[in-house]
Amino acid sequence: MIVANSKRWLTLFRSESGNVESALVLIPLMILFLSVAQIGISVYARTTISEVNQGNVAYSAMGIPELMGKSAASELAKQPIALPLPGGGSILVEEWKANIPSITPLLPGGDSFGSTGISVQE
């Protein structure tokens, strides 16, 4: 009796009747997983680049980049535009454009966005 049941289970495991159905489910599941990952990467990149941009402009307003010398952050950042204020000082504005590559077929161009940092220099 036990031998007959084990042979029946072996034939069920060796049959390939479910391979087509699993392939039809796995392809959309991978696309869905990659799309969710793409959205997460884009949200994280937007937040991070906005914070870094604002920090660079704030450091520029305090005169920190001249004191720090050459660093990776100062090499990536452009010099902000200084708009003079009537009472003295200036407003510093810096824009960054970023392109996030695509990892999903649903968003073939990737994600492109811009970030603007503003600070007041007295």
Structure description:
With 122 residues, the chain is of the alpha+beta class. The chain has one domain (19-121). The chain is 55% helix and 21% strand. A three-stranded antiparallel β-sheet has the order 1-2-3, covered by helices on one side. Strand 1 and strand 2 form a beta hairpin. The chain is rod-shaped. The N and C termini lie far apart (91 Å). The relative contact order is 0.16. The model has no long low-confidence stretch (mean pLDDT 80).
Structural features:
4 helices; alpha+beta; about 120 residues
Briefly, what is this?
The chain is of the alpha+beta class and 122 residues long. It has helices spanning 2-14, 19-62, 64-68, 72-76, and strands at residues 81-84, 90-100, 111-121.
| Structural class assignment | alpha+beta
Strand content: 15-25%
What separation lies between the terminal Cα atoms? Answer: 91 Å
Number of strands: 3
Q: Estimate the mean pLDDT confidence.
A: 80
